[in-house]
Amino acid sequence: MEEIDTRYPAARWTHIFTDGSAEDATRNGGCGVFIKKPGLPPVSVSTSGGRLCSNYKAEVLALHKATETVLQWENRTKKAVFLSDSVSALQA
């Protein structure tokens, strides 16, 4: 967290954490999003990816859900960082 706050100070940046996972990496996936906007209470969002949702699909779904959530805000943030542990989803 120190490294994140050094590069993206929490007082000026919205921190968007995403994660997705699936049972045995191939089914019943879902995702979660945690958003911390400066000066506001954190927001948590989760959703199911469905019976045929893999780890990869769940990770991509998390990034999509996070983006969708932030875009719906009336006062959009000017600086936001997406923090994900899924290299394949970020590369895609």
UniProtKB/TrEMBL annotation:
This is RNase H type-1 domain-containing protein. Signal peptide: none annotated. GO terms for molecular function: nucleic acid binding; RNA-DNA hybrid ribonuclease activity. InterPro entries: RNaseH-like_sf, RNaseH_domain, RNaseH_sf. Residues 10-92 form the RNase H type-1 domain.
